[in-house]
Amino acid sequence: MEPKKNPKADLTRNSGLYFAIGMAVVLFLTWQGLEWKQYDKDEAFTYKMDVDEELEEEIPITEMLKTPPPPPPPPAAPEVIEVVEDDEEIEETVIESTETSQDEVVEVEEIVEVEEPVDVDVPFAVIEDVPVFPGCEDAKDKRACFQEMMQKHIRKHFRYPEIAQEMGVQGRVAVMFTIDKDGSITNIRMRGPDKNLEKEAQRIIDKLPKMTPGKQRGRPVRVPFSIPITFRLQ
């Protein structure tokens, strides 16, 4: 039995060729669509060089400053000098001679020596007679005895402030004071790392006893003294 379909009417015979052509056309149209660019007429720029406007630049008019005329020359000095006679009489002063002869006796008034008060501060290191701390009256070296008694006084009255212990504050307080002409302690000053330590150093120095004042040339004088007090936590 023969087939009824005509072999010339086979549609799948050239399908590969048609597919390739269709793909090429589609790719071409796609590429053209991506490359297509269109510009609006409003966004187009036109460039024009106006030569006339550049040449017609306005130049500002500057005014000429008028310099003031030079000052007139000074008047010439007179050629003839007039001499004016002075009618006033000048009295001559007579200077008496101050020379004395050997035979002349000159009376000299009695010279009274006035003692000038010594009102200066003499440092402890250079004063002639150092202040005497109570208990050092019979000591041979009163200067060394004074230093030793000061250390004993500080150790006896030393008390570490509780608030400084809680805060962990420690350091050295420099104490400066003056032993006055009557032996009293005045002008106490402190400098340290904490106010509580300075307050304790003030309390210790306030308890110092009255001393025998220092002397310079046999006269009482003020003697400044300084000593450090160390506060250290154990």
User: Which sequence of strands runs across the widest sheet?
Assistant: 2-1-5
Poorly predicted spans: 43-56
Judging by the overall fold, what is the CATH architecture of the domain at 142-231? 2-Layer Sandwich
CATH class of the domain at 142-231: Alpha Beta
Shape: flat
DSSP E strands, number: 5
State the major sheet. 3 strands, antiparallel
Mean pLDDT: 78
What's the N-to-C terminus distance? 127 Å
As for the CATH topology of the domain at 142-231, it is Fusion Protein Consisting Of Minor Coat Protein, Glycine Rich Linker, Tola, And A His Tag, Chain: A, Domain 2
Q: In percent terms, what proportion of residues is strand? A: 5-15%
Oligomer: single chain
Going by helix content, strand content and strand pairing, the class is alpha+beta
Q: Element order, helices and strands? A: HHHHEEHEEE
